[in-house]
Amino acid sequence: MQDLIISNLSKTYKNGVKALQDITLQIPIGMYGLLGPNGAGKSTLMRTIATLQTPDFGSIQLGGLDVLAQPNELRKVLGYLPQQFGVYPALSAELLLDHLAVLKGIINSKERKEIIQALLHKVNLYEVRKQKLGGFSGGMKQRFGIAQALLNNPKLLIVDEPTAGLDPVERNRFYNLLSEVGEQTIVILSTHIVDDVKELCPRMAIINKGKVLVQGNPLQIMENLQGRLYEKMIHKNELEHYKNEYQVISDRLYLGNQIVHVLSDKHPGSGFKLIEANLEDVYMSQIFNA
Amino acid sequence: MFYEFFIFEIKYRLKRPETYFFFLLLFMFSAVGVEFVFQGIDLGLVKKNAPLVIAKTMGAITGLSMIISSMIMGVPVLRDFQYDVTSLIYVNPIAKRDYLLGRFLGSFVVLLFIFSAVLWGMMIGEFMPWNKPNEFLPFQLMNYLQPFIWVVLPTLFFGAAVFFATGALTKNLMVVYMQGVVIFVLFMITKGITNETLQALFDPFSLTTLTKASKGWTVADRNAALIPVSGIMLLNRFFWIGVGILALAIGYNKFKLIVVNEKVSPKKQPQEIKSTAVIFTKRLPLVTPVYDMKAQFVQLLLNAWFHSLSILKLISFWAIILCCFVVILVNSVSLGNAYGVDSYPTTYFIIEELREMSIYFFMIILVFYAGEIMWKEKDVNLNLIHDATPLASFVNLSSRFLGLLLIYAIVMLSLIAAGMLFQTFNGYYHYELDVYFFGFFLELFPFLALYTFAAIFFQALTGNKFMGMLATIAFAIINVAIGVFGLEHALLNFGGQALASYSDMNGYGHFLTAYLWVKIYWVLFGVLLLIFASILMAKGNETGLSKRWTSGLKQIEKSFRIFSLVCLTLFISIGSYIFYNTNVLNEFWTKGEQSDFRAGYEKALKQFEYLPQPKITAIKLKVDLFPSQRAYQIKGEYLLTNISPVPIRQIHVQKLLESNLTLTDVSFNCPATTNKRYEKYHYIIYELSQPLASGQTLRMNFKQTLQPKGFEADNSDIDVVDNGTFFDNAVLPSFGYQKKYELQEEDDRKHFALLPRKHKAKRDDVRELVNARSGSDSDGINLDIVISTTAPQTALTSGDLVAKWNTNDRNYFHYKTNQQIINFYPIVSADYQVMRDTCIPLGNTKNKPVDLEIYYQKGYEYNLKRMMESMKMSLDYYSKHFSPYQYQQLRIVEFPRYRTFAQSLPGIIPFSEAIGFVMNIDDQKDVDMAFYVTAHEVAHQWWGLQLEAANVQGQNMILETLAQYSAMMVLKAKYSDKKVQQFLKFQLNEYNEAKLKSSKKELPLALVENEEHIYYNKGAIVMYELQEQIGEEHVNKALQHFLKDWRSFNKQKKLNRYATTLDLIQYFRGVTPDLKQHVITDLFEKVNSMK
């Protein structure tokens, strides 16, 4: 059993915000998507797992390891890419990676050199490895971030909102890298972008306001909405009316008109058509129901 | 619009806690400002709240607080950039004038509010309960207000303008932090300007300007006059206000209301290489992280190097270093010593100078970069990544600590290089790398290391860079204060004692042992601080002290617990060992206990002050010195005679008050019982079974042993050392009450309800007229002494060397006087080179040559010829004009620089290694002070050794002023008049400077007490004037007769008292024509100002 088991994790901040409420999750090897809107408590959960924050209640186990009791043991097998991070602008990517590798206990200089070279190639920063980090673009910096998270062959990789600010090509490259790592590693990917999870994660959870709303296989989760989801194109002015009448889980503009998705056990009436549920609908319905 | 910016700035600042913090800091600092700024400077009769004192204090506080000014004034514009709100602000239709002026004036008003704390603080300081009313004038608001407006405000404006402009133009926070320091450096540089007027003009804080402006003021002026609004002060203030306006003008013109300054960020964007076609598909290599001890050690070293390197890459660091070297270059290494002549650039002089000049910079580096290095991850937002690594917290902090140490080491090595370069330029090629190394790495390095421990601890404790820096500075200041106020024990005073001066003769001597133990103890304390800090610096983003502490405790591992416990145990064990040495093996006295004891001594024993005691007439000693153990054994025999008219029943024997010193086997050749009533004071009364009748003699035998145990931590015990033992007969048992043990400080005496102490008795005090020294034990002795010491050392004292031999690797020397000498002789022992010569002094009637010898350490040959020539010329002149020289030898012997004087004892002149020997005399521009000092000391063979003066007012005029006169005449015989005039000018300067600092009303020379500037400096001028007025031969004639009539031994008519100035002046009057009698009155009996 190498699963990460999170049980009854709760955290309330001093200002009264309940960031985590009785969170219980079991996360096996592979990609695990943690989906939720901004401020849902994703980062708090990630930081707590990464031992950077202590919960008020609950426990975290990795294999046989009690993470809260022995945080440093977890750090030895941890790769962590925070949502926001900076770098020493005056250092080169290679030098900072070297420094971080030392901190992670890779003191054999040959080993250090090899892993750094490999990672630099992997994240496609090899050519700019000697340049100052201060001049890196957002995407390059993000790739640097993932490189440092992989320095120590982590058993647990936590990536917090990694795709924010990446262009589609970069995002794609990033996905490939993550899924490759996910073959032997627990990878927790937190995001508010439904596509990230859809494309990568065989397992996922949706959290909002510190609570787990739903967890499981995305396909199974989508199954729940099958045959209950209807779509209709309406006039903008009618939105208010529809929201009162139906259980509207999402609305968006399409060619100047409003498209609403409505959840209903029976056919809601004229103009509505039954549609296939996708993950976004699941997400929206969960968030709205909560 | 202007008003909006103006008010915004004020409102913003009023909401910030640091505004009030700065205010409070300045307020508290100013309340004790005078004490701090004038620490160790005697204000004399000038009051502590005189306008000039207030102005200087305010100026200094303002100068030291420029960094506050920089933090307030540097950021108003920068802040908009820092928080990225420039786009939001600059896009609005605002006028540059309103924006800049509003920001500037708003901040300046806040700055004025903060610095008004100086005004309030100093005023409150006047009413502090510990103040002594006699040191203060009645309170006057104007005395504070005027200096504040005239000294502080212009400085503030200048600083504010410059800081504001640079902050707005550079938009760099580090520049803002640094420029306060830079201004301070600027000030230090002005101190190096030799032209007084220019220096006064360019001093940004007006300190030297004030000195210059008040030159020639009398004490009354100093107490009454406000700061002049004219002359140099006016120019200085206008100059700096002008610089301020200029800075504002430049800043205003150059500043543009645009967000992106293209010039500022020419960073090249790295070219993205579009070679994505080759996707790296290889699996990542496996790594094997290790976390054992060895791995942690490697981490420690690699990280230390990483942190050092990152500091070395900072421009700000190089700016500090540059400033440091500029200051050293401009101030140059000052080799001047007490006599106005440069010394040779010996290594220890250079080190002391370099240390003194660089210490500020080391402290700046320490405080700043301890803050930088601790929060560097947080500053760039790398802390989450950093904290998620398994690096042990202690290894983390230790590597930062080591990183800083490495920086110090690098700076020290460059200072050493600079020192050697300086020596080379001065044509001095005797490089002593070991002395350099130890001078920096043994003396300064541990001090810095300890404060670095503290700095890191305070950073961790406060959890905030800025607060941590302030806490470190406050800690350093408190430490200095604690040392002054009496937490004296090395185990309690952070860092322990400084290492005693390095002596070329004795190295660091025995002081090193205690120093090292105490430093190990404190380093262990530092490690404990680091352990605390590493717990407090818990990983993760917990805030709040207790949270961090508990979270940190949870993270520590077992091995670390053991390590901490080991450190704690070692700390306690070594502390105990030191305590055992300093307080059990040795006695430790706090200042309070010492005062108690002295007061008790006086109260119990003062009754015996003038109790008739027998006088010593002959002394036989057998002295065995053990320099390496710093021990001796003395077997002694006194021959005592009752010269009083009454029989003596009690002999009061006072043992020297020193630990490890025992006086045993005291016996008389007459049965005596011991009265131990005052044993507490080592004062034993022997009741003679048979009273000693007037004129009868008594023999006393004793044994005295000095056997140091363990070590003491107070750098005392400089008498008996490895190489360079020097003490005199004052260590031997003495008779009756000893005035030297009385409490000296008036305040202390008042505290113990003791009467004020008289400095010197009046000239008609019959009880002191019979004493040549306080409580003198003798009116002349014959000495017979055998000294043994470890080979190859030579032991010396007064008298003829009648035999010397070597047994068991020990050198024995037998000295014997062939006539009476005063009861004052040294014991000296060291490994010496000898320069020998002989001469027959011109005036000696017997044709017996006098052996001239200089005992010196190897390497100190520079001035031997000058000293030897001076001995010869002096002996010639004095023997010819005063009286024949009385001994068959005259020896100069060098002793270590723990004491810096030369002293004349019968036939022997101990001379400190720090003076005379190392003077670098340039005959073009210098007065040959090696020659002069020697002549002065040789003169004491007459004035003091042939003729003693009564222990009353004017005694020092007879002893010292006459020695000054004599030496001047020898100087005049050898050198041109120009040199003599140069010498006199130097004396006049010294006198005028000391006079300002003297807290006593000046007495006429004839009544001088213990004021060196009167009997040395003024004395020289007065005597020169006298011989100009009445002629050198006449003065000599008077002195010759004075000496003949009043000499201590072999005089024709027996006198029952010693000479006073009353007697001496009669002789002067005797050779002065009536017309010029007033000259005598003016010179000796009145206080006239000197020109």
Distance between the termini of chain B: 64 Å
Question: What general outline of chain B do the C-alpha atoms trace?
Answer: globular
Task: Kindly provide the radius of gyration of chain A, computed on alpha-carbon positions and rounded to a whole number of angstroms.
Answer: 21 Å
Largest interface: A-B, 60 and 49 residues
Number of strands of chain A: 14
Task: Tally the beta strands of chain B.
Answer: 18
Strand content of chain B: 5-15%
CATH class of the largest domain in chain A: Alpha Beta
Low-confidence stretches of chain A: none
CATH architecture of the largest domain in chain A: 3-Layer(aba) Sandwich
Strand arrangement in the largest pleated sheet of chain A: 6-7-8-3-9-10
Strand order of the largest sheet of chain B: 4-7-2-1-10-13-12
Q: What do we call the CATH topology of the largest domain in chain A?
A: Rossmann fold
Structural class of chain B: alpha+beta
- The rounded distance between the terminal residues' Cα atoms of chain A is 33 Å
Tally of helical runs of chain A = 10
Instruction: Encode the helix/strand succession of chain A as letters.
Output: EEEHEEHEHHHEHEHEEHEHEEEH
InterPro entries (chain B): Peptidase_M1_dom, Peptidase_M4/M1_CTD_sf
Protein name (chain B): Peptidase M1
Keywords (chain B): Membrane, Transmembrane, Transmembrane helix
GO molecular function, one term (chain B): zinc ion binding
Summarize the entry for a quick read.
The complex is a heterodimer of chains A (290) and B (1091). Helix content of chain A is 33%, strand content 29%.
